[in-house]
Design brief:
This protein is of the alpha+beta class. Helix content is 30%, strand content 29%. The chain has one domain: Gcn5-related N-acetyltransferase (GNAT) (Aminopeptidase, 3-Layer(aba) Sandwich). A hairpin with a 5-residue loop joins β2 and β3. It binds coenzyme A. The site of coenzyme A (COA) has 19 residues, from α1, β4, α4 and α5.
């Protein structure tokens, strides 16, 4: 049965649930041990909400939070990965494993694309990894292309692949 999905800004009382979804979604990625600063950063929704926007996907029927994404429009934010002044970025996209494969991830990324356009940005950028295969398929299906000049490495162990989508006029 088709489920209606609404994407909106998260309310403060929902941050704990968003944090739980992030840890569950990233914690179930095959071949990846979620630990250290990366796990802490993923879980710290309140901390990043000061300089980023937390968007949640909500089941239109039950109101349950199904997934979340972080949207950034400030290249100077401490949460920004390599991006330029005229760009917006998305980070930390996660969907509750019980709700994956139903278009929730696509709805969250589309909301970031729409927001970047409204914000007058030229491009929407993101970083992912070789082994985040569902994410990479999703981004490529929505038109993102690889941008190797934005690649970077975090914690000396995670090689991040840059992707970019033109959203300007
Ligand atoms: C990446 C991630 C967010 C995708 O979330 P999702 O809600 O499953 O994404 P979607 O449902 O939009 O798309 C995923 C798949 O479901 C399919 N799908 C989309 N809508 C569908 C629908 N209505 N019915 C059935 N399948 C559907 C898509 O075709 C896609 O399949 P494909 O990739 O094999 O082509 C999720 O897998 C996740 O949380 N992964 C762990 C964290 C992670 O890797 N995040 C990305 C970091 S860069």
């Amino acid at each position: 049965m088709a489920v209606s999905i609404e994407v909106r800004v998260a309310e403060v009382h929902e941050y704990d649930r968003v944090s739980e979804i992030m840890l569950t979604a990233y914690g179930t990625l095959p071949g990846f041990r979620l630990e250290g600063a990366y796990a802490e950063e993923l879980a710290d929704v309140a901390g990043r909400s000061a300089s980023t926007l937390q968007l949640v996907a909500v089941d239109g029927g039950t109101g349950a939070i199904l997934g979340a994404v972080t949207y950034l429009d400030d290249a100077a934010s401490p949460y920004a990965q390599p991006m330029r002044e005229d760009e917006a970025a998305l980070r930390m996209l996660g969907v509750d494993p019980a709700s994956q494969g139903r278009g929730v991830g696509a709805a969250l990324v589309q909301a970031c694309i729409d927001r970047a356009r409204q914000d007058g940005r030229a491009r929407l950028v993101l970083h992912t990894t070789e082994w985040m295969t569902a994410g990479r398929r999703l981004y490529e299906r929505l038109g993102f292309r690889r941008s190797p000049e934005r690649d970077s490495t975090v914690e000396d162990r995670i090689h991040l692949l840059g992707y970019v989508l033109e959203v300007g006029p």
